[in-house]
Amino acid sequence: MTAIAGRAWVFGDNIDTDVIAPGAYLKFSPEEMARHCFEAIAPDFATKVEVGDIVVGGRNFGMGSSREQAPQALKILGVGAVVAVSFARIFYRNALNLGLPVLFLPQAEEIAAGDHLSVDPVAGAVVNATQDRTYPCDPIPDHLMAMIADGGLMPHLKKRIEAGLIKQ
Questions:
Q1: Owning domain of residue 73
Q2: What's the pLDDT score for residue 2?
Q3: Fewer CB within a 10 Å sphere, N or C end of the chain?
Q4: Dihedral-angle region of residue 152 (phi above 0 means left; psi in -120 to 50 means alpha; beta otherwise)
Q5: What are the C-alpha distances in Å from 10 to residues 14, 60, 85, 147?
Q6: Is residue 165 in a domain?
Q7: Across the strands, what pairs with 4?
Q8: Contacts of 162 (CB under 8 A, 6+ apart)
Q9: Taking Cα atoms as reference points, which of 113, 36, 104, 110 lies closest to residue 70?
Q10: CA distance 125 to 123
Q11: 166 belongs to a structural domain
Q12: 90 domain-assigned
């Protein structure tokens, strides 16, 4: 996977999954639900986010319920990656399972909204071209990058079963 590049959408600490994927829209299609992503705190996010843009969080990003629709909404909207100081455990795993790269970045709070970022999840680096800064971070392990490259856990397992790498 090559680096992911886009604008930074910056959110603070304790962003919960109900803000990312509002519960009132869970009964609708994933695409409809995604149109309401972050609407309580960034009403224009879903209409202005572009493919490859990077969501930047503070501490405990994705807290709250275990709804997998939160990372799913981000992926549907084309978000290339999420970097945050820390993640709620279930959000972190749901994002990886759905094929959305997520990286821990202790310096995430130094990034400003609109900064142009390049994220390399294999090398473990976030480059802020706007501020001319490079931040090292832990890379995503190869086995998880393979899963992300395949589109998430289910497509990855299907691929491995079809290749005879997993016995049914």
A1: 4-139
A2: 76
A3: C
A4: left
A5: 13, 14, 12, 26
A6: no
A7: 119
A8: none
A9: 36
A10: 6
A11: no
A12: yes
Give the span between the Cα atoms of 68 and 87, in whole angstroms: 14
Residue with tokens 């996977």: 1
**β-pairing, 4-10 with 54-57?**
parallel
What is the chain's mean pLDDT, rounded? 96
Residue 100 DSSP SS3: coil
Cβ contact 103:140 at 8 Å: yes
CA distance 141 to 117: 21
CATH number for the domain harbouring residue 22: 3.20.19.10
The pLDDT, as a whole number, for residue 94 is: 97
Q: Which residue has the tokens 């071209």?
A: 129
d(CA 125, CA 17): 26
Whether the CB-CB separation of 122 and 145 falls below 8 Å is answered with yes
Q: Is position 152 within any domain?
A: no
Q: Are 7 and 119 in contact (CB under 8 A)?
A: no
Q: Which residues contact 92 (CB under 8 A, 6 or more apart)?
A: 62, 102
pLDDT at 1: 65
* Segment 96-141, tens digit of pLDDT: 999 999 999 999 999 999 999 999 999 999 999 999 999 999 999 9
Q: Token match 């999840």: residue?
A: 121
CA 152/CA 110 separation, integer angstroms: 30
Closest CA to 123 of 150, 142, 146: 142
Please tell me the pTM assigned to this model. 0.95
